[in-house]
What does this fold into?
Amino acid sequence: MRLLGWGGGADRAREFEEVALVHLDALHRSALRLTHNRPEAEDLVQETFLRAFRSFHRFNPGTNCRAWLFTILRNAFLNRIRQGSHEVLEDDPAAWESASESVTQPAGGGTHPQEEFFQTVLHGDVDRALKALPLVFREAVILADLEGLNYKEIGQVLGCPPGTVMSRLSRGRGLLRQALGRFAREHGYVKESE
Amino acid sequence: MNCSEFESRLHPFVDGELDVGETLAAEAHAAECPGCRNRVAGERRFRQLLRRQPRESVPPEFRAMLRARLRRSARVAAIRPWLVVPAAAAAAALVWATLPGVSPSTNLVGNLVDKHIAYAQIEQPAEFVSADRAAVEEWFRQRAGLRVTVADFSPAGIRLAGARIAEAGERKAAYVLYEKGRTLLSVFTVPVAVGEAELSGTRVSYRGRDYVTQERKGYRTVSWTEGQVMFGLVSMLDYDSILQCADNLRTERSRQARL
It folds into this structure.
């Protein structure tokens, strides 16, 4: 137990605030996108920081605090799902492979007309599309594209090698694009034929 | 590098995750192949779209609450370190102990809190977006034949954001939305039958007027009835701010009634 080595509790809290609490906004945003429920997200973030604070003595200064916090957040979130079964866990990403096969676009082939809708996608659409994404892909996309973590950090959070991060990202992004294209058609931005 | 080799490296290439040799090879291929170049451009635009998403900050009250809790937790740990040993259990207890009990009652105030939470989560909580009080009052008249008083809370830094017609307890209610920074304040005006709105909660008096306050799901509510209308304010703002708004609204209503 190194706890007493941290001196006063106030010092420890101050250090934690400097190193960890600066990531509060990022954690909160991701919790919202994982839970789609504000009180639950706040509760989850609170649990994450309390847990992190309690094991802060095990945190190695100089290593990546943000990835460490995301790891704790993810574990807390998964625990909740297991207990409350709010969301169906797709433990087997392979099951999604065939479903997302059609996403892969052919190489070459000039411009992609469906990309035009990017300019007209509504903010709410991205959240809606993310929400529909299976959790294994959603968490990878959130970490990479909304929070800017690199493959190594994402691999640390998700507990998988960089190769798996890469394949989850490419499938997740493909599914997300499909969904956004569908919304764009619903809004009438893109004609059916496209 | 050919197209299919490029294809399999497209995502790590755009993400800047390839090593130097592979990056150079991929760049050389993209320079020669318009199709693959287009795919890269499409991926970049897609990343930009995702990066353009609103980057919401946590409500300041939540940040302050979390800091206070961490400091309290640090004090406990410093005094009685053995308390820290069952870390997960202790953390869970700290979290749950402060959550309000879930009441089975389906009273109107609880209904309003649920509405507030639901609206806070959608991208565009207001059906009618306007910071103009007169325009919002007019919108209610035209849209639902409702005479709604829209008060001005701007001296307290609370800005009018818009309005919507809400369903509360299976009836139409007027919902006026305000914002202080990123914290929302909802003002509901709900028609009620005489004696129906038995408001439960803590009775408080503020500047000579009576209110009922109740905390639900972490949100604070201040409500009162005037004849056959119930008013409910819901927010994460502190009680003082909410009561000040309530007082302001009632003053404005009595001023309008006198005219």
